[in-house]
Amino acid sequence: MLQQTQVKTVLPYFKKFLLNFPTIDSLSESKEKKILKLWEGLGYYRRARNLLASSKIIVRQYKSKLPKEYKDIIKLPGIGDYTANALLAFVYNEPTLAIDGNVKRVFSRILNKNESKIDFKKIIDINKKKLFKSKRNSDLAEAIMEFGALVCKPKEPDCSGCDLKTMCKYFKSKNKYIKTPKTKPKVKSYNIFCYINQKNQIALTKKHKFGFLNNFYLPPMQEVKSKNLSKNWKYHSNFKNLISNKILDINLYYKHTSKNPFHSEWFSLKNNYEFIPSFTKRIFKQILKTN
Ligand code: SF4
Question: By alpha-carbon position, which residue is closest to atom 8 of ligand 1?
């Protein structure tokens, strides 16, 4: 849940999720619909689907216990190198670190080097024997993350009170490294076509090719190079939506019709449906706002 999402946003979702699925078995037996409903508003729904898929594998192949080997954990859906290492450290106290943004910054500062020039895997491998001889490897992995979040902060590191300053090249150096600026999210333009009937219902379909909203209800949508007015459609409005690290620049078009225009279903614009993603609900809101 914490991927791309802040702790304060996640907390109520996390509590509710654990109340509904207190064990990996209960999660694996759940219907996808129920999980997506609990996830509603968190975005990045692929994470929820991956959790369900992983839980099924863990129950079936590993007797409901997380596998202990990196090579097995990394094969679970949605688990990349970062999460695999976090799980090994936190769950099994293995000598490894989860290299998140905070940890990268701490190492960058101590070495006074840009993150892109540091081989984090090599640092872990070299230090496995001398640094990680503790029964508290999980605490060490978490402590470095927390140290980055609370002391070696992104903007103003608290160097005066830092125990590492005697070994920190960033603190000692006159030529402090400059962090490479983050790449801006890409802007993509889309035309969205809303068929509306007399009951104020909108036609939605799951048959579309937009991977980031795979298997969710959407009106017909088309990626375009720029805003292009369509003859048969009335222009409604424009809005921007951030999704999967992309800024979607949306032009809404509409048309009144009583016929079901394609393999779709009608949905009332005023209902707060379960399983409709927040992105589609944003379209409902936009239409109602200016209707
Ligand atoms: S001395 Fe400052 S820059 Fe260096 S590790 Fe400590 S807080 Fe970070």
Answer: 152
* 109 located within any domain: yes
Given the CA of residue 105, which atom of ligand 1 is nearest to it?
8
- Which backbone phi and psi does 202 adopt, to 5 degrees? -115, 145
Q: pTM of the prediction? A: 0.69
134 Cα–ligand 1 center, Å: 24
Q: How far is the CA of 87 from the centre of ligand 1 (A)?
A: 27
Residue 150, in any domain of the structure: yes
94-134 pLDDT tens trace: 989 999 899 999 999 999 999 989 999 888 888 877 777 77
**Residues 98/91, Cβ–Cβ less than 8 Å:** no
- pLDDT over threshold 80, residue 209: no
Nearest CA to ligand 1 atom 2: 159
Distance 245 CA to ligand 1 centre (A): 30
Integer Cα distance of 97 and 168 in angstroms:
20
Distance 117 CA to ligand 1 centre (A): 19
Strand partners, 223: 190
Q: How many folded domains does the chain comprise?
A: 3
Residue 263 has pLDDT above 80, yes or no: no
Rounded to the nearest 5°, which phi and psi values hold at 168? -90, 115
Residue 252: give the domain boundaries.
186-290
What tokens appear for 44 in the block? 């990045």
Q: Which residues lie across from 64 on neighbouring strands?
A: none
